[in-house]
Amino acid sequence: MSIIQIVSLVALVFCFVMMLGHFVRIIRLGKPKDFSVPSGSVAKGVAYANTVAMMPANKESAYMHLPTYTAGILYHLGTFLSLLLFVLSLFNLNAYYPQWLNLLLAACLLVSGICGIVLLIKRFANKNLHSLANPDDYLSNLFTTLLHLATACYLAFAGCCCSVFYIYYISATLLFLYMPFGKLKHVVYYFAARYHLGFFYGWRNVWPPQEEEK
After folding, report:
1. Which of 46, 109, 141, 204 could form a disulfide with 152 if both were Cys (CB 3.0 to 4.6 A apart)?
2. CB atoms < 10 A from the CB of 99, how many?
């Protein structure tokens, strides 16, 4: 393992420990407290919050922006794929991928990276989005998109371009060091937020809607 890989691994461990701290903080806060009489199922509400409620037709305005919604889904899938491939790369498992698989994964990450660029441009160009944005929104997108594109280049060109190797691990290191301090830590808080929503609306028998239970 090279020095740059070791640095990236240390950054990953740092990120994991910090994220674990956020998770422990959430757990220590305990479950929501509701003193009203329950009229529905919390379990069904939580299940609905994490499944059907995430569909664009059931969100406040996502159904009016389907291209953006789709780009966001692809962007998140590309992020999960990039993180998985990074872990595998630390054990040099990527050396055993057939070339066609490397190129296919690179193409997928190129698409997700382009989605990230489009979302970044839209956030900057759209007056409504720009007025709500802060530097963290742009930095989070920038570091994440950089990892998508760097991973794509690493898969496609690492064997013939030494600089791609260093760019890849530097981009991963930057993302891991930034993740615990910016909005990217919602990878932990997302689940707590959806649980609280499901608890609140499930307790009151609002989620799932009655017509969907029939």
Report:
1. 109
2. 10
